Amino acid sequence: MLDSATLFAILGMAAVTYGTRIAGLFIADRLVLSGRAKAAFDAIPAAVLVAVIAPMVLATGPAETLAALVTALAAARLPLIGTIMVGIAAIVLLRGVIG
User: Fold this and answer.
1) What is the DSSP letter of 60?
2) What tens-digit pLDDT sequence spans the chain (99 residues)?
């Protein structure tokens, strides 16, 4: 059972997290970016995706690493849904073959 201090800490952290995300949406709409700042702002989603995926790819087994390589190659040629399907198929097949 949670005591009241733990519950208030969790609720407070949730409120702050939600507040910063909502504030970011409102502030981002009002920003007027050009040049390098716009390029940096546009690169944020890809950078976050790589930061989430790269440790998993490098810290797991060879099947996951090879599947990530196959998926990266597919991403150069296919649209997003095709890349996702190739990635899923690659991980399923490679885990079955390599283990």
Assistant:
1) S
2) 778 899 999 999 999 999 988 888 888 778 787 888 888 888 888 888 888 888 888 888 888 889 999 999 999 999 989 999 999 999 999 999 987
Q: Which two tokens stand for residue 74?
A: 């597919």
Same domain, 21 and 47: no
Q: Which residues contact 40 (CB under 8 A, 6 or more apart)?
A: none
Residue 36 lies in a domain: no
Number of domain units in the chain: 2
- Domain-embedded: residue 7: yes
